[in-house]
Design a protein that fits this description.
With about 500 residues, this protein is an alpha/beta fold. The protein is built from 21 helices and 14 strands. The strands form five sheets. It has a five-stranded parallel beta sheet with strand order 4-7-10-1-11. Strands 12-14-13 form a three-stranded antiparallel beta sheet.
Length: about 500
C-alpha cells in the first residue's frame, strides 16, 4: 500500500482535491450505483420505498429527516451513510475543525499554511471518524452542539472575545467535513432548534453575539417520530422548511421481510456448548405475527407503533427458554413448544404503548392476547376454517356468549368430542419430551390434522403443531384454556361456562 503524504508539499491536489462532503457522497453514490453495489447492507423492506427517496435526496445534496415510528431502522440508515464517504481524507494536523490543507477555513490555519508552507504536517481521517450523532434531549445546550466562548482562555492569552482562538467548539463544528445525525429531533428545545437554522441555510456558525462566521462543510441528518405521537415537543416550522428532504419510513410490509430482519438481528446461534435451537417455520411466523397483530390491535396506541425489535427479542427469549429446558434435561430436543410462548411476555410488555382500553385490560392480559391472536392467524393460514358464524372479536379473557359456537368444519369434531366428554389436557414447559408428545397424541384426530395440514419432520415438531391446533380452537372459542404455572390447561368450553354458572 502506498504511504499517505505526511506534509502539505507531498499532497497531490489532483488526487486529493478539496471537495465538499456532499459532493463526495454524491460522487461515491453514483459510482456504487453504476457498479450495482449494495448501498445500505442490512436494510430490508425499503428497496422500493425509502431507499430510492434517500438516493434522490443525496444526489440532490440535501439534508434529510427520517420520519417514522420507533423501530423502523432510522438510526441504522443514518449510520450506514458513512459508507458513502472516502476511505481517508487529509486534514491539517491539530485542526479542531479538521480542515482540508488546501482549503483552510479558520484564521489560525491560514496563518499556519502561510508560515509552514510545504512542511505543514498532515493527518489522515478515516471515514468512521467522520460520523457523529447526538440524542436530542431537553437539556442539550447551544454550547454542546455549536460551541461557546471560553473566557478563561481569552483572559490567559489576552485575546478579544471575538477572536477565533477563544472558542470552544461544539460537536457540529468538530464534525466538519463529515456527517452529523440528531436522533429524536422533536425532543430538542425550540430555542436550540433555532440555532440549527443558520447551519442548514447559510452553512456557517455564529457564537453568541460576536460577529464571527465560520463556514462548515457538513451533511445533517435527523430522525423523528411523527409529531402527533410525542407530547414532548415538535419540529419548529422554520427548521422543517430548511431540511430539504423528509423521508417517511415504515414497518415491514410482509411476513417474509419481517422474518428476514429478525433472522439478521436476533442472537440465536450462540455456540457455547448447548445444541443449536431449531425453531420451526410456523413458529417463526407466530413470533412475527405478534408485532403485526399489535399494529392492528385496539388496545395498542397506534401512534407509537410496535417496534420491529419485539419479534427479535421474542425470538431470543424463545431460544433461551429452550436452552433452559436443555440444561435441565440434556436429552430434550432443541425445539420450542407453543406453551413456551408464555415466557415471551417480558419481550412484549415493554415494547407496546397501551391506550385506555388496553390499560383497563392490563399489560399482561394484552400481551397474552397478542400472542393468542398471532397463533390464531398462523392456525387459520394452515388449517381448515374453524370460525363460527356470527362470531365477533372479543376482549382477551372474555368467554363467548352461550350458543355462539357453530363449527364450520367437522374435522375438529373428534378433538372437541374428547374434551366434551370431561377430559382435560394439562401441558407444561417442564414436561419431558415423551410426556409432552404422549399427552397430545392421546386426543383422537389431533395427530391426523397435524400430519395432513402442517407436516413436521420429527415427533416433537408434530406435537408442537398439534398444540397449535388446540390453541387455534381456543382462540376461536371452541375450547377453554386456563393459564397455569409454567403451562396451560385446555378443557371443554361449555363445561367451563356451566361450571361458572354454578
Amino acid at each position: 500500500m502506498t504511504a499517505k503524504p505526511r506534509f502539505l508539499g507531498d499532497l497531490d491536489p489532483r488526487q486529493y482535491p478539496p471537495i465538499g462532503v456532499r459532493d463526495e457522497i454524491r460522487r461515491n453514490l453514483i459510482r456504487k450505483l453504476r457498479r450495482g453495489e449494495s448501498l445500505f447492507p442490512g436494510i430490508i423492506g425499503f428497496d422500493e420505498s425509502v431507499i430510492p427517496q434517500l438516493v434522490n435526496s443525496l444526489l440532490a445534496r440535501h439534508d434529510v429527516v427520517f420520519l417514522g415510528l420507533r423501530g423502523q431502522a432510522k438510526t441504522r440508515l443514518c449510520r450506514l451513510l458513512v459508507n458513502l464517504l472516502d476511505d481517508e481524507v487529509p486534514v491539517i494536523e491539530g485542526s479542531a475543525l479538521r480542515e482540508h490543507p488546501l482549503a483552510p477555513i479558520t484564521t489560525r490555519s491560514h496563518e499556519r499554511v502561510k508560515a509552514e508552507g510545504k512542511s505543514l504536517p498532515l493527518e489522515w481521517l478515516a471515514r468512521e471518524a467522520r460520523y457523529g450523532e447526538k440524542l436530542a434531549t431537553p437539556d442539550v445546550t447551544m454550547a454542546d452542539l455549536i460551541g461557546d466562548i471560553d473566557p478563561l482562555k481569552a483572559a490567559h492569552r489576552k485575546l478579544d472575545l471575538s477572536n477565533e482562538e477563544v472558542i470552544h467548539y461544539g460537536i457540529i463544528p468538530r464534525l466538519n467535513r463529515g456527517i452529523f445525525a440528531v436522533n429524536e429531533l422533536p425532543d430538542l428545545a425550540p430555542r436550540i432548534q433555532v440555532g440549527l437554522l443558520n447551519i442548514l441555510e447559510e452553512r456557517d456558525i455564529q457564537i453568541r453575539g460576536f460577529p464571527l462566521r465560520i463556514p462548515l462543510d457538513i451533511l445533517l441528518v435527523f430522525t423523528a417520530n411523527p409529531e402527533d405521537y410525542t407530547n414532548r415537543g415538535s419540529i419548529i416550522p422554520p427548521l422543517k422548511d430548511r431540511i430539504a428532504s423528509q423521508i417517511l419510513t415504515h414497518y415491514p410490509r410482509s411476513l417474509e421481510e419481517a422474518r428476514a430482519i429478525s433472522e439478521s438481528e436476533a442472537w440465536c446461534d450462540r455456540g457455547d456448548g448447548l445444541p443449536s435451537v431449531q425453531i420451526p417455520e410456523f413458529f417463526l411466523d407466530i413470533l412475527e405475527e405478534i408485532a403485526f397483530r399489535g399494529r392492528e390491535s385496539e388496545y395498542v396506541d397506534q401512534k407509537s407503533g410496535v417496534s420491529a425489535r419485539l419479534p427479535i427479542a421474542a425470538r431470543e427469549v424463545v431460544v433461551s427458554q429452550v436452552e433452559r429446558r436443555l440444561v435441565r434435561d440434556p436429552k430434550a430436543a432443541p425445539q420450542p413448544r407453543i406453551v413456551d410462548l408464555a415466557q415471551i411476555v417480558p419481550a412484549i410488555t415493554g415494547k407496546v404503548e397501551l391506550v385506555y382500553e388496553g390499560e383497563q385490560e392490563g399489560t399482561l392480559q394484552v400481551a397474552r392476547h397478542l400472542i393468542g391472536t398471532a397463533c390464531r392467524a398462523v392456525f387459520d393460514r394452515h388449517f381448515p376454517d374453524a370460525m363460527r358464524e356470527g362470531a365477533e372479536e372479543r376482549p382477551p379473557g372474555r368467554a363467548a356468549p352461550k350458543g355462539e359456537a357453530r363449527l364450520k368444519s367437522d374435522r375438529y369434531k373428534p378433538v372437541l368430542d374428547w374434551f366434551s366428554s370431561g377430559n382435560r389436557l394439562d401441558l407444561s414447559d417442564e414436561m419431558d419430551d415423551q410426556s409432552y408428545c404422549a399427552a397430545l397424541e392421546q386426543i383422537p384426530g389431533l395427530e391426523a390434522l397435524a400430519r395432513e395440514f402442517l407436516p413436521a419432520d420429527s415427533r416433537l415438531g408434530r406435537a408442537a403443531v398439534m398444540e397449535l391446533v388446540l390453541e387455534g380452537l381456543h382462540q376461536h372459542s371452541l375450547l377453554a384454556k386456563e393459564d397455569v404455572a409454567a403451562g396451560a390447561a385446555y378443557s371443554d368450553m361449555l363445561g367451563v361456562m356451566l361450571e361458572g354458572l354454578k
